[in-house]
Amino acid sequence: MIFLETPSNPSLDIVDLEFVGKLAKKHNILLNVDNCFATPYLQNPIKWGADIVTHSATKFIDGQGRAIGGIIVGRNELIKEVRFFSRHTGPCLSPFNSWILSKSLETLAVRMEKHCHQAMELAKYLENKNEVFNVKYPFLPSHPQYDLAKKQMRMGGALVTFEIKGGIEKGASFLNKLKMISFTANLGDTRTIASHPASTTHSKLTDSERKKVGIEAGTIRISVGLEHLDDIIKDIEMALS
């Protein structure tokens, strides 16, 4: 099995799904795509040759930080194996969480439209800030894989990453100064969420290991929420200054 994530976490690199889909079929290998960041609304990996698509439904599919769950999509013969495994080992959704997630899907498109619009505006704002550099957002023309992102995604998603000058200390200081934006280990919420991968999710990696996956000491990941855009920018402006 080839298992990949696009856009990747947290560096927002894009994987060419059409290329990998053809490669997998050539060698008779299953292609499994983690589509959590893009959601079904922004990207459809099966269209490009994926056999299985997985989602952390805890993120954008729920969208309000209420339920933990996952979704696996694929051909009947593959899903039968997943269902058999889940039934006998326990990782099954509760009926209540299933209901929450199914209701949330009704507003996924509307929410993602605003998430993406606000993320794009925030990314353009950050590109003009002297305190940060290396702003990455898939639909920014400056993204090294902009053309590929435009090819296989409807919009650029809700995640923006950038580096703060001053490294890990300045990154931690930035997060501590945020007032409205939440500092948690989640993403895809109605609330804007900031995280510092080098000191949290990827803290157990060495400096060189982090660099290999595009994480620098000052890297900040923002999951842009649904608050008023002016309030999001004002909070970031205050924390940077």
Present the secondary structure layout.
Blueprint: E1 2-5, H1 17-26, E2 31-34, H2 39-42, E3 52-56, E4 70-74, H3 76-89, H4 95-104, H5 108-127, E5 132-136, H6 146-152, E6 159-164, H7 167-177, E7 182-183, E8 193-195, H8 207-212, E9 219-223, H9 229-240
Parallel strand pairs: 1-2, 2-3, 7-8
Antiparallel strand pairs: 3-4, 5-6, 6-9, 8-9
The count of helical stretches stands at: 9
Task: List segments where confidence is low: pLDDT < 50 over at least 5 consecutive residues.
Answer: none
Roughly how many Å is the radius of gyration? 18 Å
Helix/sheet category: alpha/beta
- How large a portion of the residues is in β-strands, by DSSP E? 15-25%
What's the story with the biggest beta sheet? 5 strands, mixed
Strand order of the largest sheet: 5-6-9-8-7
Instruction: Give the assembly state of these chains.
Output: single chain
CATH structural fold name of the largest domain:
Aspartate Aminotransferase, domain 1
For the record, give the distance between the C-alpha atoms at the N and C termini, rounded to a whole number.
47 Å
CATH structural architecture of the largest domain: Alpha-Beta Complex
Overall average pLDDT: 94
Give the helix level as a range of percent.
25-40%
Order of secondary-structure elements = EHEHEEHHHEHEHEEHEH
Shape: globular
Would you identify the CATH H-level superfamily of the largest domain? Answer: Aspartate Aminotransferase, domain 1
Tally the structural domains.
2
| Strand elements, count | 9
- Under the CATH scheme, which class of the largest domain? Alpha Beta
